[in-house]
Give the backbone structure.
Amino acid sequence: KRALQIAFDRGLATISRRSGMLKTYELMNRHFGWERAPAAASEREILRYLLDRALRSQGVVALDSICYMDAGRKPAMRKLIESGVSRRELVPVTVEGAERVEHWAAPAALETKPLVTAELVHILSPFDPLIRERKRLNHFFSYEHRFEAYVPKPKRQFGYFALPVLVGDEIVAAVDLKTDRERQKLLIQSWTWMVKPPHRLLRKQIEEELHRFEQFQLAR
């Protein structure tokens, strides 16, 4: 307790006492060496940043995806989007299957179709933004993921910590994995298919990616 108090007195934040780890964070002003802190961003600058970030990372955006867990900014964000549409910086987009939800994109994002040379395999964390934003995930991939770590075991569908698998432009499976660091192995607890059989080629692609994933997880 004394060590923690000293750390706080010195301007350092400390966490994770239970795990035996001590992480320290320097005060921002002292870290940057500012004589005077820069002016805070205005609300409009924050809105502009959120919109630009969403357009850059998502391509096609909706109010829910721009203001995820920040519903209070939706009215002001809508005004900013409408202003962008009037200046032809943004165009309305209709997403098939989600026609009732307004979407927008920058014109340049719609001018060329991305060239896909191979069906890449991505093993995604349930906390990946693509999976975490469930409405958007359902609109674009017709898939609803459940994070079941807090669901009683008999009621789980995918597993304790299932990771969705994206192949090309389709969620094809959810694989519940566990890392056994003592034996240096990645264990598959369960494997749930989201697409109809046959699965032979898909399984081979996913297993190859799981091997790379295992090497990354167990890297020393």
Summary: The chain has nine helices and nine strands.
